[in-house]
Design a protein that fits this description.
50% of the residues lie in helices and 0% in strands. It has seven helices and no strands. The protein is an all-alpha fold. The longest helix has 22 residues.
Length: 211
């Protein structure tokens, strides 16, 4: 996805990822009463007042990591939710999961990156908490950090296709366009939603995991 280097593409990607995560978080918020969800170090006591889009835009502005890091961070979030089905993305943990996934992807992908203290300031948390989040995230991933070119291309292709379906300018979070049918099932109201692909390189088939 060479288009990532285009300065007009990244703002759209940030907007799309934000709206996607917003939909998943809100859906899982509604299903907390139907499906038990564990409390983890990623959970805040209250919902952050800053929106997901504003938070991700802040990360994009100050992290200065390569564009590919945001694709890899998306892959990591997908892997995390698949490996930790009792910890779905919701409004109480999405911000901490975001800052942690971007930081971990930057460390893995980029030759130069900021330290944990810097990312903690960007994310509005303490360095100590940032350190704990990183460790828990790595264990949650099973230290599965490598992203093959095929997997990277699969996620890029999906995001590129879905971004093309989005109207311009990017809609506000309180006026989100209809969910893509490839990601959500008709019975989504009673399920925990995750953003899942199969990483089986023999098939490369997109899968939905609904727990």
């Amino acid at each position: 996805m060479a288009e990532l280097e285009n300065p007009t593409v990244m703002p759209r990607l940030i907007g799309f990822l934000s709206s996607l995560l917003q939909r998943v978080a809100e859906a899982n918020d509604l299903n907390r009463g139907f499906h038990p969800q564990k409390i983890s170090v990623f959970h805040g006591l209250t919902r952050p007042t800053i929106s997901i889009q504003t938070y991700l835009e802040r990360i994009f502005k100050y992290a200065n990591c390569s564009p590919s890091c945001y694709i890899v961070a998306y892959v990591y979030l997908d892997r995390f939710t698949q490996r930790q089905p009792a910890l779905p993305i919701n409004s109480f943990n999405v911000h901490r999961l975001l800052i942690t996934s971007v930081m971990v992807s930057a460390k893995f992908m980029d030759d130069m990156y900021y330290n944990n203290a810097y990312y903690a300031k960007v994310g509005g948390i303490s360095t100590t908490e940032m350190n704990f989040l990183e460790v828990d995230f790595l264990f949650g991933l099973g230290f599965h950090l490598n992203v093959t070119p095929t997997t990277f291309h699969t996620y890029c292709s999906y995001l590129q296709r879905e971004m093309m379906l989005q109207p311009q300018p990017q809609p506000q979070l309180n006026n989100i366009a209809a969910e893509p049918s490839s990601l959500y099932s008709a019975g989504r109201s009673s399920k925990l939603l995750h953003l899942c692909f199969s990483e089986d390189e023999s098939s490369h088939q997109q899968q939905q995991l609904a727990v």
